[in-house]
Automatic annotation (TrEMBL):
<protein>
    <recommendedName>
        <fullName>Copper-fist domain-containing protein</fullName>
    </recommendedName>
</protein>
<feature type="domain" description="Copper-fist">
    <location>
        <begin position="274"/>
        <end position="304"/>
    </location>
</feature>
<keyword id="KW-0732">Signal</keyword>
<dbReference type="GO" id="GO:0003700">
    <property type="term" value="F:DNA-binding transcription factor activity"/>
</dbReference>
<dbReference type="InterPro" id="IPR001083">
    <property type="entry name" value="Cu_fist_DNA-bd_dom"/>
</dbReference>
<dbReference type="GO" id="GO:0003677">
    <property type="term" value="F:DNA binding"/>
</dbReference>
<dbReference type="GO" id="GO:0005507">
    <property type="term" value="F:copper ion binding"/>
</dbReference>
<feature type="signal peptide">
    <location>
        <begin position="1"/>
        <end position="22"/>
    </location>
</feature>
């Protein structure tokens, strides 16, 4: 699997396990923070009650914040993950969900606490290249031999930037309309399963630290979250991202190099140089930011992990 393929897995279902801790450890004196939880992307497994049970128990209840939920759920999936265009076309998932799944997703959406924004996207979302006169950055070249520059991959990446943007815009609008300020924002994929409890909010330095776990989960301080979430797509529209150059790692595109990373402070969302030399899942003494292994499964009902991943320790899970 190439270094960027992890974000292209069309039916990945992340399982996030965590330690057993409880909100009562935060003590009665502290006021729970206001948390905006935004789930945006392909709904995929979100219609399965186990996914929402996991969110309610292991994220909402465990973390213990005052939660407001925003949901941008795409009901069909055209993802690709080939190594070139031909393979993309061959492997392309064309999962148009039926009415039952649509209803399941809607029902599960309404089980989330304090739902303030809900968009169920039934139609194909197709992005257009902005008119970048001088820039070659968004040229799609189906013949280059790598999937990186194909139309299919391009649509998927811009789609991810847009998911984040939708969260940013929705949260910003909500804050403007209500006067509520969120202390912390969590953006997650809707197809991630929280299989173990998150530590309580007081275990996090959520005012000053961001944590980003690939494209699965971002936890952002409320002070920078809106700008960070909007940035990637804004830069795309302004022809400023490095998105279609070479085989840049997707994490750099989405999180660091062009999008959110510019908005987050020095130590936020950045890889710890020393960690990069360490092997995945192995505790590395040089690494200041310890990593914990994260498991992925491919489909609901498949219990065991099939792909190792890394979730930064400061994400706390
Ligand atoms: C939903 O909002 C209400 C009122 O703001 C709040 O009291 C409640 O704790 C919130 N629910 C959750 C699960 O955070
Ligand atoms: C909980 O969040 C809602 C906004 O979503 C807000 O109206 C309410 O005041 C918050 N509660 C507290 C105690 O801050
Ligand atoms: C690449 O393929 C897509 C999908 O068939 C097509 O719409 C697009 O025009 C092609 N781009 C180039 C540069 O050939
Ligand atoms: C792409 O990679 C080539 C070869 O490594 C390099 O020379 C070139 O500068 C890169 N282009 C961009 C836009 O980064």
């Amino acid at each position: 699997m190439t270094s960027w393929a992890w974000a292209l897995l069309p039916v990945a279902l992340g399982i996030i396990n965590g330690p057993l801790t409880s909100v009562t450890q935060c003590g009665g004196a502290t006021v729970p923070p206001n948390l905006a939880l935004c789930l945006a992307g392909h709904a995929r497994t979100f219609g399965d009650p186990r996914v929402v049970d996991g969110l309610l128990t292991n994220l909402v209840a465990s973390f213990g914040a005052n939660v407001t939920t925003f949901l941008y759920l795409k009901l069909h999936d055209h993802s690709t993950k080939g190594k070139d265009r031909l393979e993309n076309l061959k492997l392309a998932v064309d999962m148009r969900v039926g009415d039952k799944h649509k209803e399941d997703v809607r029902r599960m959406a309404h089980r989330m606490p304090n739902v303030s924004g809900l968009a169920l996207i039934e139609d194909d979302v197709v992005f257009r290249q902005p008119p970048c006169q001088k820039s070659r950055e968004f040229r799609v070249d189906n013949k280059s031999g790598t999937a990186w520059r194909t139309e299919e991959t391009w649509q998927m990446l811009v789609g991810q930037l847009y998911n984040q943007y939708w969260c940013g815009v929705s949260i910003e609008q909500y804050e403007r309309d209500t006067g509520v300020k969120f202390d912390v924002v969590i953006k997650s994929r809707p197809d991630v399963t929280f299989a173990g409890p998150a530590p309580p909010y007081c275990a996090f330095d959520y005012d000053t630290k961001a944590c980003t776990a690939r494209d699965w989960l971002f936890m952002l301080p409320g002070s920078v979250a809106v700008k960070a979430l909007k940035r990637g797509y804004e830069e795309f529209e302004m022809c400023r991202t490095i998105m279609n150059r070479n085989k840049t790692k997707i994490a750099e595109i989405i999180v660091r190099a062009s999008g959110m990373g510019k908005e987050l402070k020095e130590d936020m969302g950045r890889p710890d140089e020393a960690c990069q030399k360490c092997k995945k899942g192995i505790i590395c003494p040089l690494c200041r930011r310890k990593d914990t292994p994260l498991k992925l499964i491919r489909r609901p009902g498949v219990p065991s992990g099939s792909l190792p991943g890394i979730l930064p320790r400061h994400c706390g899970f």
